[in-house]
């Protein structure tokens, strides 16, 4: 009896689907700072340059790899085993509940992946292929068999570092010269991932939201339409001011790279914030664009925050967010807004990171008469904790209040049922 109970998990593991041959060609990860790590190649058999970053996410490697914010980056996973539950079919309906994909975009967005141990067998009811075959299909190289702990410590000590993965016959070649490394932050990565033409999602929704696409994750769209919003997705540099009267709110999405490449969007948003009174909400890159429009500066962090376990402290209350509470969040960013004293008039800090004291959110003050919020983290997670998911409900509640003239009550059937917005005393923060 006990012997059978012990061996059942081993039998189940043996029935997992194999990802292919365990004989993998050599590969080397070279860092511009001089270190090299020899391993084995999986995925696409090609060499590539990129910006080497690490993520502390324990799960959701498929969501991370399809996040447009990872554009141009060599993604190092600190979790030792990656690929054990495979990759699902990335198709879904396009309706009031979904946006055509299961993951965060149509394909892999990162330049390459680095893992300690890539799973040769995968097992999950929704799995359709292995991580290796998925990477090969999207022409993305990977390296396994390297010490990701050592790589992570290097990146934490010296900061995010340019890198190159050399595959096959390239693996034995000397490391590239410093001038050969490609720096993706010098390019406007947002322009590469943003939609080129406007399109609508859930057009029958009752609350009309315009979304500026800096590289939006699919789960942002899902989080909006599942709360009754009709979303029009616009290119990152679209002149929203020319059409703003058609909408009940403006949303600014996440995106990759240096926010200074998006100064055009920040200047257009500055006019919006000066002349428009309807709600505005920004996430990640969108948060940085709001901050720049408000007069704050953005700076490049040493190694950024990437993972699903970043604690942030709420400095003010707003809707579902309560001042003084710590929320665990999902994040993926290299840049942040500078905390300054005094803060721009009409604005106040909203969240601060509990680990490094960086700004994690800003908001308009009650005295400003505006309804604007920006957060550096991802309330929609995917993957990650759902501590702050109701910020989407808070935003749409305010949009409904402006549209219908009052915050909807629970017995009001003319608008989506959401949490009411609550005012609360503000907490000042010292720079």
TrEMBL record:
Domain of life assignment: Eukaryota
GO BP term, pick one: glutamine metabolic process
EC annotation from Swiss-Prot or TrEMBL? 6.3.5.5
Return one GO MF term.
ATP binding
As its record notes, the protein acts as a catalyst of:
hydrogencarbonate + L-glutamine + 2 ATP + H2O = carbamoyl phosphate + L-glutamate + 2 ADP + phosphate + 2 H(+); L-glutamine + H2O = L-glutamate + NH4(+)
Q: Name one GO cellular component term.
A: cytoplasm
Task: From the UniProt record, give the pathway where this protein acts.
Answer: Amino-acid biosynthesis; L-arginine biosynthesis; carbamoyl phosphate from bicarbonate: step 1/1
- Among the Pfam families in the record, one is CPSase_sm_chain
Q: Which UniProt keywords apply?
A: Amino-acid biosynthesis, Arginine biosynthesis, ATP-binding, Glutamine amidotransferase, Ligase, Nucleotide-binding
In this chain the Carbamoyl-phosphate synthase small subunit N-terminal domain maps to 25-166
UniProt xrefs under SMART domains: CPSase_sm_chain (SM01097)
Family recorded in the similarity comment: Belongs to the CarA family.
Q: How does it assemble?
A: Heterodimer composed of 2 chains; the small (or glutamine) chain promotes the hydrolysis of glutamine to ammonia, which is used by the large (or ammonia) chain to synthesize carbamoyl phosphate.
Q: What is this protein called?
A: Carbamoyl phosphate synthase arginine-specific small chain
The uppermost taxa in this organism's lineage are:
Eukaryota, Fungi, Dikarya, Basidiomycota, Agaricomycotina
């Amino acid at each position: 009896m006990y012997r059978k109970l012990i061996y059942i998990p081993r039998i189940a593991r043996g029935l997992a689907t194999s990802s292919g041959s365990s004989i993998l060609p050599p590969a080397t990860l070279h860092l511009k700072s001089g270190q090299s790590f020899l391993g084995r190649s999986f995925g696409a058999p090609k060499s590539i340059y990129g910006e080497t970053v690490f993520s502390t996410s324990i799960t959701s490697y498929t969501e991370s790899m399809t996040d447009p914010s990872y554009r141009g980056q060599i993604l190092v996973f600190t979790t030792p085993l990656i690929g054990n539950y495979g990759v699902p079919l990335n198709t879904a309906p396009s309706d009031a509940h979904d946006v055509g994909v299961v993951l965060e975009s149509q394909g892999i967005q990162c330049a390459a992946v680095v893992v300690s141990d890539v799973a040769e067998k995968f097992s999950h009811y929704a799995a359709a292929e292995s991580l290796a075959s998925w990477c090969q299909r999207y022409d993305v190289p990977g390296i396994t068999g390297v010490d990701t702990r050592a790589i992570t410590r290097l990146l934490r000590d010296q900061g995010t570092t340019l890198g190159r993965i050399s595959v096959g016959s390239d693996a034995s070649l000397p490391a590239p010269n410093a001038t050969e490394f490609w720096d993706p932050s010098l390019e406007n990565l947002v322009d590469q991932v943003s939609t080129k033409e406007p399109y609508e999602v859930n057009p029958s929704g009752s609350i009309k939201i315009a979304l500026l696409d800096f590289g939006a994750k699919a789960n942002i769209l899902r989080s909006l339409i599942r709360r009754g919003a009709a979303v029009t997705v616009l290119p990152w540099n679209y002149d929203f001011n020319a059409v703003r009267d058609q909408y009940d709110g403006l949303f600014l999405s996440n995106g990759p790279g240096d926010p200074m490449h998006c100064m055009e969007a920040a200047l257009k948003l500055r006019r919006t914030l000066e002349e428009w009174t309807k709600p505005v909400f920004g996430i990640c890159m969108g948060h940085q664009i709001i901050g720049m429009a408000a007069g704050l500066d953005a700076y490049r962090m040493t190694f950024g925050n990437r993972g699903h376990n970043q604690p942030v402290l709420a400095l003010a209350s707003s809707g579902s967010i309560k001042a003084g509470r710590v929320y665990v969040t999902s994040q993926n960013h290299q840049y942040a807004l500078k905390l300054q004293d005094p803060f721009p008039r009409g604005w106040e800090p909203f969240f601060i990171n509990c680990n490094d004291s960086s700004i994690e959110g800003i908001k308009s003050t009650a005295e400003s008469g505006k309804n604007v919020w920006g957060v550096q983290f991802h309330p929609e997670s995917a993957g990650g904790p759902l501590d702050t998911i109701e910020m989407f409900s808070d935003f749409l509640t305010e949009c409904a209040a402006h549209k219908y003239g009052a915050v909807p009550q629970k017995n009001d059937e003319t608008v989506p049922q959401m949490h009411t917005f609550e005012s609360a005393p503000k907490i000042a923060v010292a720079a």
